[in-house]
Amino acid sequence: MTNTDIPDRMQAMVLTGHGGLDAYEWHDDWPVPAPGDHELLIRVGACGLNNTDVNTRTGWYSKAVREATTGTPHDRIDTDDPAWGGTPIAFPRIQGADVVGRVVAVGPHTDPSFVGKRVMVDGWLRDWSDPSKMEATGYFGSECDGGFAQYTKADPRGVMVVQSDLSDAELATFQCGFTTAEGMLTRAGVAVGDTVLVPGASGGVGGALVQLAKRRGARVIAMASEAKHDTLRAVGPDLLLPRAPDDLRSALGDEKVTVVADVVGGPYWPRLIDVLERGGRYTCSGAIAGPMVEFDLRTFYLRDLTFTGSTIIPTHVFPDIVTYIERGELRPALAATYPLRDLRAAQQAFIDKQHTGNIVVIP
Description:
single chain; 363 residues; alpha/beta; Quinone Oxidoreductase, Chain A, domain 1; Rossmann fold; 2 domains; 6-stranded parallel β-sheet; 17 strands; 22% helix; globular
């Protein structure tokens, strides 16, 4: 079923290869994708930005790169592993995982009742014969074209119809940040009685960690630049600390940290591990301050710590997040919107980290 108003061509920001912001090319006449037998065509209302876009563009995921995420291309990219999954991706590629929009057409073997409904797209591409199979996953806007365009297509099993009074731009702040955060908290088993320390709490994932850990009944300590504390208070941390206190143990006072939920890494990392209580848990889904850290194995084993990495989320996480949104249990943190044509400026603002929350582009 097809809407006759759908054009043949669309505007799109297309990534032509690994490199700087000039690797993005603006097109006014990119072909509108045709939905396959079991696909939906979505008119994009808004699409959020995330670190995966930056890291893929610059080749930061390559093991040859040891620096922090900066948004500048890396000289030592290993062409065998420049993307999140450790393999190359195909160019040209339309990035953008955090898609919110309306279904305007469906493939010939897809339920036509989807047409006209507002949907959020799950960032994870699954093998639907075995959705939990990690080895068979891809990411929207990485292993397939995403939402930095006027139209995109998706498998109906990878979208959720959403009923909410929030705008498309507000809804586009949730998918990547909140599913990443919920995946981390799920892996770490966060529950009532835990105290969770969140470095980088002013970012999209950091703010989501604060909200979702609070939703689980945990006590939350947020670390962020003091200039961002006023806006960060809106998401409800129990305690706010500076971004990187010289003496973290003293700054914590009597707090007993049972979980560190981290997307920052970098040279400050050993101090985070040092404040974990015996039997504590560390969960990680990023390293924006740098992937190489100093790790004392004695702290790890003598304190009975548990470390979990978190990238591919359990299949229930995305539907859970949409349910929490519909119940009004989560608060969007929309820092700014940009026209899609200005994606380069939007991504530079994202990299500069002067904002609190999420940046979104509007086609």
